[in-house]
Amino acid sequence: MKKVFYVFYLVLLIPICTGCEKNTFVLEWEPANNGLYGGRITGLTVDPTTNYLYAWGDAGGVFLSTDNGGSWTAVNKGLSEFGLYVRSIAISGSNIFAGTLDGVYLSTNNGNSWTAMNNGLSGYGTTVLSIAINGSNIFAGTGGGLFLSTNNGNSWAAINNGLSNTQVNPITISGNNIFAGTFDGVFLSTNNGDSWTAANNGLPQPVNSIATSGSNIFAGTFFGVFLSTNNGSTWTCSNASYVSSIAINGINIYAGTSIGVLLSSDNGRSWTAMNNGLSNTQVNSITISGSNIFAGTDGGVFLSTNNGSCWTAMNDGISLVSISSFAINGSNIFAGTYGNGIYLSSNNGSNWTAVINGLSTVFVYSLAISGSNIFAGTDDGVFLSTNNGSSWAAVNNGLSNQNVRAIAISGNNIFAGTHHGVFLSTNNGSSWSAVNNGLSDVFVDDLEINGSNIFAGTNGGVFLSTNNGSSWATVNNGLFSYQPIMEAVGKQ
Description:
By secondary structure, this protein is an all-beta fold. The chain is 0% helix and 48% strand. The protein contains no helices and 48 strands.
C-alpha cells in the first residue's frame, strides 16, 4: 500500500510565558518555511481579463501571482478548513468561483476574500471537483453529480438525468455541447444539462481531463490521451501515458502526465517529451496565457515561454512542500520532502536551501545520520552524502528493491525498509543483504530501533527483531486491525 503524506508547515516551538502563574507557559507555533518553496500544485488558471495567475494545491488554498509567476501570495480569507482543499477555479468577469471540499466559494476581488455559495449543495454535492461557466450558467461537477446555478451561485439545482455515475471531475463546454468526465467515462449534454448521454465508445474510464479544439475532443485518462472527431461518438487512443491534464494552444496540444509534459503538433498522432528544466515530472495541471505555458507539478509551478522547450521554476511564495522526514546533525537540520528533494537549514529553520546535487529523484521518504554520513531513502534507492548534503551518491549494491521507505542506524549497522523487506549494510551502504527471516509482510514502511530491539512497521502490523535482523516475530497483540504501520515511535 502506498504511503500517504500530508502537507505540513515546518514550525518552531516557541515557549511564551503568560505571566499568570509561575512556570506557566503557552506553547505557540511559528512557520519556518523561508526557502521551502514549491510543493504539490494540482491546478492552475489564468484570468483572461487581468492575466493574473491562480494556483492551488492540497490543503494550501489559493495562491495569486500578478507578475506572471514571479512571486505568489496566499489569498485564502474566508475559506474554511476544508475550503482550503481547492479542486477547481473558474473565472467570469470579476467573479472567481472556487470548487472545494467544502462547496463553492465566490470572490469578487481577485481572491482577497471568499464567500461560501452552497445553497442547494448537500452531502457529496459539497465535494466540488470542477467548475465551468457558460454565460450566466455555472456548472459544478461534484462527488454527488452535476449542479447548475443561473444566479451567480446564489442557488444550485441538480442536473443528473442520464448520468450513470455521479462523481464528476472535468467539465468542458464547446458551443451548445457540455462534456462531463466521470468514473464511467464522458457524458454529453446538448440542452444545458437537462439530460445526458454516454459518449464512451472506445474510451476507457475514468476520465481526468477534457479539452476541445474545433471539432476535436481530447480526453485524458489513466491510459493516455483519446481523440474524438465526432462529438464523442467514438474515440481513438493517441498516446499511452497517465494523463492528468490537457491544454491546447493553436496546433499545439500539451498533455500533463506522470512522466512530464508531452507535446503533439499533429492532432495527437505523435508526442514528444518536453521536460528540459522540469525537475518534477508529475504534472497535474497545465494552463496557457499567450506565449506563457504554466505547469503545476508535485514540485510546484514551472513556466515555459518557448512552447515547452525549457522550463523555469516559479515558486517564490508558494509554501506547499510536503515534509516526509527530518534528520538533525548539530546545528544542521535536514528536511526530506515528497516531490522537492532535500533541504538544509543551519539557523534553526529560519532559512532553507535545497541540497540535491547527485540525487536522481526528488521523492525522499527517510533520512538518517551516522557521524558525517547522511543517508537518504528515496523511491530510487539509498543515497549517501559525506559532505553535509553538498553532494549525494547512490549506494544500492544488493538492494533488490529501491523503493526505500525507511532507514534506521544502530552502530555500524544500517537498515533499509523497502517493499521487498528489510536490508542490512555493515559497510556504510557499499553493499546490502536481505534480512527477512520471519518477516511475513515485506511492505516495510517504517523502522525504529530501541537498544537491541528493531521494530518494523508493515502492512501486516509490527515485527520485532532482537538479533540484528537475523529473524523477526510479530508483536501485534492489542492491534485490532493490522492496518499499515507508517510510523512508529522509537528511541535510537
